[in-house]
Write a structure and sequence with these properties.
The complex is a heterodimer of chains A (about 150) and B (about 170). Chain A is mainly alpha-helical. Chain A has six helices and no strands.
């Protein structure tokens, strides 16, 4: 009888998980991507009451098989785009992703160009000819070596 | 080539300067008592449609910022609802659900029998315009749309004299 009860309980608990047609997302995965609106840190770094309510909302939606994308969309509809820790990869928000990379590449190109120009401007100066006395002395030393 | 680089650097610096000036001129400053109440239009928390603060011009308004996650807000809910019933059509009570999950806000209204209209401020934009420092906070707006009285930081349940003084100030012609 006990075994039957355990089996029924296990089935009841497992039912929601089995109902999902896709792998479940997790609270720990989303916590680092969602901001706490009152304390301006990500949820995983906050225990503020507002953060706790949002964590509760996320947990509920995960239980209801909502995907990470759906949960994020619902949070954006509720709190605005600032609820996301990183801007979305679409529209004007793409600029936030690509501008720093473009800036770094541009800076690196400018730096490379500057170094190239500088190295080309440094033409080695011709060495002054040896005075006759030194020249003769070098010849003597070389002759001794040979 | 050097001139082109100089021009690019100059344009970049000028752009940053313009950005700085824009940021400084668009910083939100808390509204002043006696000045106009910051305008807003926001979605109703219950039901469809939105409420425009300007549409309430002609009647005094008690503007209460709250959130379901805010403990002191629970303590003041009854005081606000009782006052809303007491003043009836003479004063408009308007709740602003600040940085809250919509479903939680609706449950809060239901749990505390709040009958006066409430709007959503999930992004906190309205709160920012009023220079909100936290919830609950309550503002008083007269019939001409000006902020009057001293706005109340914290629960009105513990500051009932100031609360009713604020309503009286809003009722003054």
């Amino acid at each position: 009888m006990k075994l039957l009860a355990v089996l029924v309980a296990a089935l009841v608990l497992a039912a929601p998980a089995a109902a999902c047609t896709h792998p479940r997302t997790s609270l720990s995965y989303l916590e680092g991507q969602i901001m706490c609106p009152t304390c301006h840190t990500t949820l995983d770094q906050s225990d503020a009451p507002a953060a706790q309510r949002i964590k509760h909302f996320i947990a509920q939606r995960i239980d209801q098989c909502a995907t990470a994308g759906q949960i994020k969309s619902e949070l954006v509809a509720n709190f605005g785009a600032a609820i996301l820790a990183a801007p979305p990869h679409k529209g004007l928000d793409l600029l936030a992703w690509w501008l720093p990379i473009a800036g770094l590449l541009g800076g690196a190109l400018l730096l490379a160009f500057g170094v190239w120009r500088w190295s080309r401007s440094r033409v080695p100066e011709p060495e002054p000819p040896l005075d006759p006395e030194t020249d003769a002395r070098v010849d003597e030393v070389l002759a001794e070596w040979e | 080539m050097t001139r082109a680089l100089q021009a690019t650097a100059l344009v970049a610096v000028a752009g940053l300067f313009v950005l700085l000036v824009w940021r400084l001129t668009h910083q939100s400053h808390p509204p002043k008592i006696g000045g106009p109440a910051p305008a807003f239009t926001a979605k109703r928390l219950i039901g469809s449609g939105s409420i425009d603060l300007a549409s309430l011009r002609g009647k005094p308004v008690v503007l209460n910022f709250f959130a379901s996650w805010c403990e002191p807000c629970k303590a003041e809910a009854k005081v606000l609802e009782d006052a809303a019933r007491q003043y009836g059509n003479r004063v408009v009570f308007l709740g602003v659900d600040y940085h809250d999950v919509t479903g939680d806000g609706r449950r809060f209204l239901s749990a505390h029998d709040i009958t006066y209209p409430t709007v959503q401020d999930g992004s906190g934009m309205i709160g920012d315009r009023y220079g909100l420092t936290g919830v609950p906070e309550t503002y008083f707006i007269d019939a001409r749309g000006r902020l009057v009285g001293e706005h109340i930081k914290g629960t009105v349940a513990h500051q009932q004299h100031a609360f009713f003084d604020g309503i009286k100030a809003a009722l003054k012609p």
